[in-house]
Each structure stands twice: as structure tokens, then as C-alpha cells.
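The authors assume throughout that readers already know how a fold can be written as C-alpha cells. For illustration, here is how one protein appears when written out as sequence plus C-alpha cells.
>
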Amino acid sequence: MKVNSGPLGGCRVVDFTWAAMGPYAGYLLAALGAEVIQVSRPLKNSSSTTAAITQFFDVGKTCVKINVKDDDGKAVLLDLISKSDVFLENFRPGVVEGLGLDFESLTEKNPRLVMVSGSALGRGGKDSSYVGYAPIFSALSGLADVTGFEDGRPTEIRYPSDITSGATMAFAALAGLADQGGGGTYVDLAARDALTWTLTSSFAESEVESKRAGNGHKRLFPHGLYKCKGHDQWIALAITDNRQRESLYRLVNWIGEDKEQCDNLTNAEKKQLDKYIETWMSTRDPRDAMKELQALGIPASQSADAQDIWEDDHLRAREFFKYVEGIGWVASAPWRIKDAENHQYSPNEPDMARNRVFNEILGLSHDVIEDFIERGVIG
């Protein structure tokens, strides 16, 4: 099996995660060149929604199944971790400890192991045992409260919460790998903490109270989404300085007073300017409006839907979409590393994966492997 090149070439990661946060962390490490071995349980029915989602994160990984509730299975996993550099897990606190996969036990055989535990609220504190998924992360972090219309209810944030937490989890693993002076490293990561950190500017502005601003902004104007020509077609606009503001005024033929600072505009003037912008946008395709505004140095973008993204020439030029046999089209890593071989997007062949992990890495004979498969120890 071909090993990826890249900054993490030669690094082996055991990805004992599930749902989205953990698998995305493993995906990013694989995209950086690590050999990532995804370990899951050999369930009879794997056609769940979770399995459908995580198959995209498993691209580029070596995926095997190990029954950790079986003594032989646990021994296999422990041996694999002892021969690896990083161990990722994102179960509720107490789960891996109950399986004997705690940091203290693992570092007895692998003193230089980097272990990252991701959970909703972290290991410390009275609420650490709470169960949480992406909507819970966003609610607990305060992100849901500051998202939504000004006079509306908080808005649940799903997938981006997992992705943000997963990226933070991958970064934590990199930090552990960089700190190899005194042995192993254990990182306790809380998804809530990762998301709450994104709101520090809101806390600094309002000290205690936060307020939903809808598509507007507390300091910047014009700022928001404007309806364009066509059904459900929109454009995002974010003016940040006087030059952009003056260019926009001229473009939409606003004849109000020549105000240099948006802070000087009255609410009535802001509403009037908004109407001029809406009128100008309403006669234009969002792609054409975006090009016209960008040509003037005005930050603006079409609000793209899935079809727009799929047909985007810029993403195509960057080879953002990759076709994987048995899965279909998937998104590639969100970076390009100069002079490094591209992340491998080959499909996960079960026989090849089992041979790589159980025979080549762990040294199990083919007879033992077949016996373990027959008994449901591995899959």
C-alpha cells in the first residue's frame, strides 16, 4: 500500500474516532502525509447515517475493523497503538478508560505516544460527562445565540461546529508531535472550548451581553445579503473602508449626503441607502454583480448553492473535487503543498487494508488473521 508523502510522511496515526469531529481530524492528518489507520467496530449493519457521512472522511486512510470488547481484539488494538505515533479518540469521558485505553496505560508500552481526546466539554469539570454532538457544541459555546436574525431565535449550527472542532483536534495532534522532548503528550480537547474561542471578539465588545445582528454588522455598513435577479439569488456585501463605500455610492447612484463614515449615517439614511443597493442588485445576476463590484475593489460574493459550487471554475482549476472509486466525488484537502505529492485518494480495499495493518505492521500470520475474521475479532 502506497504511503503518502508530505510534512507528516512516516508518521502513523490510529484514528479511533466516530461521527464527524474526530474523523475530520484524522482526514486532515492523512492529507498532511500521515499514515492514518481508521479503526471501527465490526458491526453487522454499517449502513447508518453516520457511516454514510464518515466515509468521506475515511478517504486516504487505511480502514480496518477491530472488536475492542473481545480480549483478542483489544490486544490487537493495543499492539497497533504501541507501534504508532498518534492516537485519536472522541468518545465520552470514561469510555476509553473503561477499555484500558487511557494515556497512562498506553504510554507504558509507547512512551512517546501523542494522544488527543476530543469530547463535548473536556475531561475536567462537573459537566464533563455530558453527551454532545454538533448542535450541542454550538448551543453550549454561545455560537447559536449570536447567530440568527436580530429579532429571532438562536440558530443551530451543525456541520461547521464539527469541522471547526475537528480542525482544532488535528492542530492539537501536531502540537503534540512538535513537543517530543520529554516523552508522550496528552491533549484534552473540548469542542465547546474550540467554538467559544471564535466568539472572543463578541465578548470583548459587549463584555457580558451579546446580541444577534442578523446579516448586519455592529460597526460596518453596508453589510449583509441583498436579493438579486432570479429565484432565491443573493449576493453578500461587506464594506470595510471609505474608499469601498464611496465606490458603492457612485455605483448605485445614491444621492444622499456625502457621509465619509458609516457611523455618521442616521438610521433613515441607512434604510435609504439599502433601498438603492437593493434596486441596483435586483436587476442583475449575482455572478455579474459580483464581478462588477469586485472590479471596483468592493468585497462582494454570490451566495453560492451546492450547484454553484459544483460548477465553479475556480474550484475546478484547483482540482478541489476528486473522484474516488466506490464513493464518488469528494472534496480534497483545503490546501496545496508545493513540491509535496498530493494526498492519496485511492479507495479503501478491505483485503489490502487488513493485510497492511494485521500482517505488515503487526506481523500476524494469514491463518491467525483468517481465524480472527471468522470469530468476529477483526473485519
